[in-house]
Structures are given as structure tokens and as C-alpha cells.
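Write out this protein's structure.
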Amino acid sequence: MNASLFRPLTVEAPRPAPPRALSLRPAMALAARLLRQPRPDIAQAAVERWQVAPGSCTQVRRAKVLPGQFERIAGSEFASISEVVRQFKGDFEAKQSATIGYRLKNALLHDGVLYAGGTLRHLQRRSRFLPVARAPREETRMALFESWLGNRWFGNWLSDDCLTYRLAENAGIPFTTHGSGGHVPDYERALDMLPVRGPSAFFRELVLFDDAAHNENKRLRAEAMRQRLIRGPIERHPGVFLLRGRSGDARFLTNESEIAETLARRRGFQVLDPSHAGLEEIVRACGGAKVVMGVEGSHLVHGLAMMPPDGCAFVIQPPLRAVAALKLLTDRQGQDYALVVGEGTNHAFTANIDEIERTLDLV
């Protein structure tokens, strides 16, 4: 592995600059949309592009699953039911694209939207629409490491944006609009992340990355992130159940507490609510777990980011919102993935503890 990927680049801190003149880029973008002439993605405005890392292939493994589970899936998210089931069934090779870097000039960031040369990219939902914009400061060479998905879901921030940061720190001063609430400050300290934050800015030069593919380079960066989080020997144990409760988007497992208590009693699982736990406690519970289990959702990424290389993600899927996103992470890292599909609706569904235990026996 090339150590230079993880060595921060020393860059002189930006100097304050007077406020810039008003810009009509938001109004022009709105007019183009109303005229059904949508602006292309901002990568089209790059004055330079290069390959950061080559593409590669990942082996999509077959999930540990009992017969009849896939037939319960009545709805899915982010992909069709057939595509989600195909990912669960595995036994094929997936081609992963290269990681690409882009350099832009004279880019404007305003209210969650990045503009450059007649192109744009949405990073967050707008808080309001203003036809004119003024960046409160002018930045020198910065590197953006955030994504729309990472700004929307904590799991994507941890599993993807934090890995892109390792590229950004070597290309300029890392910049983000992402907030610093929840577990974000703890992870940033543990991962030695020191980004500049701001809701808007004008960039003389801005570097950004197409880093969505789960190629070999990204796998190595994920492995290095785990090592930064664990920082030494950790005790192995059978597993951890990460409670979700009613947090996040609706998918409430009504017998979640009963399942967690049963696994703690019969299987020696630890039970943890990550929304009320500090990072050190999460590391102790997840870093040595053979199995990381819970309802599908971002909170499970705490465990997937730090479970051992031979660990297994065990995901309880709601029947109307089956998602294979977490399996992309375990396939990237060469780890196992197990699942059961519940019965009911997203607002209230149950999972069978007997099916869960029989699936655990397959792991």
C-alpha cells in the first residue's frame, strides 16, 4: 500500500479576504431548469482530471440466509427488488470503477449547491432559495470530500466520506459543509481529521473526487481507518446487537429488545445503543465482535467500520424496505453478511428469534 495516500499534505492556511460581489449563478441555474435545460454535473467543468486509483473487481459473496427469506421482500430502497436479491444471492464478480480526481477553478458554494462554469452539484438540500449569492470568504486550494449521501445519512459519511478525506488531505486543505454534531467530532479526533467547515465559499481552486466505487484502493483505506479506530489489541467476543429503536427513517422492530436480550442470554452477545454511547464504548463492543447485528440502518456502520476482518454483518431487513447497501461494504472487505427478513410494515415489523438463531448457526 502506498503510504503517501495517508500522509497529510502541508498547505499554508488560507488568508481572510474581503466579501465577494454578488453572483447570479443560482438564478441562472434555476432559469435553465425551468427551460428544461438542466446544468450538467460539476465534473464537466474540471480543468484537470486524473486517475487516483485504478478500478478493480470484488467478489460478491452469497449471504448467509435460510430458505424462503427472499420471498418475503415486498419492497426495496435504492434499487429494484430483483437487484437487491441478486446482491444478497451473490456468487458473481462486480467490476469497480477507478477513483478519479478533478480540479475546478472559480467554484462557488452556496446553500448546499456547488457551481462552476455553467455546471452544478447538489451537496445538501437547500435551506431556502435565493437567486443571488455572496460567498463570505475566498479560499485558496481546497479539497472537498463530502457527498450528498454522506450529508444525508451518517452511515455513508462514516463508510465513504471519511475514506475520501484521506485523498483530500493529500490534495489541498480538506473542506466540508457537513455539520459537526453527534458522533462526528469523536470520529474526526480518532481519525485525525481537521477539515475547514463552512456553508458557503468561493474557491479559486477546488479538488473533488469520484470515489463511489468500492475498488481495492478504497478497501485499503477502510482497513487503515479500522486500524486508526482500534489502536491496539482488543478482546474477541461472540457478537454485539446494536439497538436502533425509533431513530432515523421509519423501520421499527417491535421485538428488538426481546431479540437482543435473548441473544445476550443464549449467545453471549453484548447489547449497545450507539446513539447513547461514546466512541470508546462503541470500539470496545464492535472492534472484537464476531457478529455485528441489528436492524438495517446507518447505526450498523459503527460496527462494520471496526469489526474484525473475519467478522460478519447480520442485518434484520424490514420487508418493505430491503437494502443491500451494507452488503457492498462487507463484500468490499471480504467479510460475511447474513440476514433475516421480518414481517409487517416499516412502522411496525417483527423478526423471528428462532430464524435468527438458525441463521447464526450458518455463520
